[in-house]
Task: structure prediction
Amino acid sequence: MSAASAHAPLVLGFDADDTLWHNEGLFAAAHQRFHALLASRHDPQTVERALYATELRNLPLYGYGAKGFTLSAIETAIDLTEGRVSPNELRELLDLGRDILAHPVELLDAVPDTLAALHAAGHRMILITKGDLLHQERKIAASGLADRFLAAEVVSEKDPETYARLLRRHGVEPARFLMVGNSLRSDIAPVLALGGMAAHVPYPLTWEHEKLAALPSAPGRFFTLSSIRELPALVARLGDSSPHAPCS
Amino acid sequence: MSAASAHAPLVLGFDADDTLWHNEGLFAAAHQRFHALLASRHDPQTVERALYATELRNLPLYGYGAKGFTLSAIETAIDLTEGRVSPNELRELLDLGRDILAHPVELLDAVPDTLAALHAAGHRMILITKGDLLHQERKIAASGLADRFLAAEVVSEKDPETYARLLRRHGVEPARFLMVGNSLRSDIAPVLALGGMAAHVPYPLTWEHEKLAALPSAPGRFFTLSSIRELPALVARLGDSSPHAPCS
Result:
C-alpha cells in the first residue's frame, strides 16, 4: 500500500468464473446434452441427481473443473445404462468436456471498463480462481485482463485457510481486503469469516455445490451488487470510510 | 538470503514426482493394465503408440496428470476397439486413474534426511512441480515434507518462462538457483537456459514425453547425481566456489 496515497487503498480480490467471464452456462449446456443422451432411459431429474452424486463422491480426488466433470459424466452414464452406453455416446461425453475446455472466453458486461477504472485508481487487484490449473491459466491469458492483476492465483479450494495463505503471501491485512465474486460459498463466506469484506455479484446460474443457506453475520462488511459496474463506487465509499484512512 | 551467513546460500528448487517420491511407476503399472485390457485385440506396442498419440494430442487441453491420462486412455480404448469396449473395461479405466490419484505417497530413499540437512544448513528451498493442482497439493501434504519448503509451486508447464516468473516471485537470481530433478526436459534444460544451475538425479523410469536428446551447453552449471544423498556435498562445494561468496 502506497504511503503517498490519500488513504491506504483497499486490495481487491476477484473471482473469475461467472464473475469476470461466463462459465456456468457452459456446464449447464453440457448437462443438457448429458440429459438428452440418456433421455430414452431416464428422466432429467434422475440423471441430474445421479450425476451430482457422482461428482460429489469424486470431488475429493478429482477436484473442480471440466476434466473431473467429464470423468464423472462417463461414470454416471455407465451406471445409469447398466453398462449399455454406446461408443458414440462415450465420444459425445468426451466431446462435452473438451468443448468446455476449448470454449472461448466471453467476458461479462462492463468487466474491462470496471477493472480499468479500479486499476487507474491505484488498487492492487488479485485474481483468485479455483479449478483446473491449465484451463484457468489459459482463460486468464485469453481474457486479455492479466495485466490488471498483480497476481493470478489458481487454487484447489476456496476456504478460509486458502484466503489466509494468499493474503499473507501478498502482505494484505484481511480488514483491507475486499473479495468480489458470484459464489456465496467460495467467494463470500470464507472471506467474511477471516474478517475481510466481500461484494456478491450474483450470476443467473449457480451450480448446486456453490449454493449456501446462510452467511456469517458481517455487518458493514458484506455487500450485494447487481452488476460489477457498481464496484468502483462501493470501493470509493469503503476507502473513504475506512478505519485505516488518515484523518483529514 | 541471510547477510549473516558466511556466504550467500544457494536457493534450491526441487521437482517432486520421481525426485522426492515415486510416480512414474504408478503410470507404468496403469499402462500395463491398459495393455492387458486390450491384449486380445492388439499387441502392446500398438496400444502404447495409440495411447501416447492420444495423450500428446490432448495435452494442450488436458495438461499433465492422472485425470487427463484417464480421459486419453478411455478415448484410446474406444478408438482401438472401434467402440466395442465393454462397461467393465470402462470401469477398469476409471479405476486406473483413481488408483493413481488415491495412491499413498512413497518417498524415495534418503529424501527426508537430505532435505533436513539442507534445511539445517540454512538453504531456502522451493518445491516446483507440474500436473494436477489438487493431486499435487494432496501429495505435498501427505509427504510430510511441506515444512522444509518456503513455498510449493504447482505449475502447468515447466518452461523457462515459468521458472523466470517463480524466481522473480521469490526474489532469486538465476545464478544463485540450483534446480534438482529427474527430468532433463522439465527440470534441467529450462533452468540451464535461464543461466541457473541444475542437478539431474535420474529415475529408473522416464515418460517418453520427458526425454530429451540434447541439453544446452552449460559448463560448470550442470551436474549428474546418482542419488539425492549426494546433493548436500554438491551444494556445499557450489557455495564455496560461488562468485557471490565474499572473499575470506
In short: The longest helix of chain A spans residues 44-62. Residues 147 and 181 of chain A are 19 Å apart (CA to CA). Chain A has a mean pLDDT of 91.
